[in-house]
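seq as requested:
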Amino acid sequence: MPWPREIPSFAALEEHLVLWMARVDRRVHKTTHERPMDRFERTRGRLCGLCLRKPMPVRERRLARRVSNEALVDIDTVRYSVPHRLARETVEVLVGESRVWIFRGADLVADHRRCFEPHSKVVDPAHYDGLWRRPATVPPSPDPSPLTAMGRSLEQYAEVWEVRDERARARPRA
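struct tokens:
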């Protein structure tokens, strides 16, 4: 039968493979100079399952965790913050290679960069917004503008831009 061919079902594919293996296993392979089934039987004792060695690496883990009274979830000795309204509730945590996502049902409630420093806390100050008093471990919310933290404002940049525009207009064109 010419290739490519249409195979109507998985059962038809399995049937074709059984016939193909029976035909191929009888002939001598051109590279190994032995029949494939004879080679398999000879090496069968040296083959072992993957699970007999070491466990396969895991890229992501799903965990169920209960949120503490401080609105923190403990994963591998690192505590990650969640919104304060979820205190004492159970959440699902997806631990990836570089991120930690925390879900309540289908809703993503927290997203943190994964921390590998034992016994540390990863806190998003926004998780404590609306509380009358913040926990002592939570830093105050940052100023909304990073420019203000550097001692600058958008007005100062606007002034510089206007001066630059005025100089450009005053310069004679060639």
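Helices lie at 10-26, 36-43, 146-149, 154-170.
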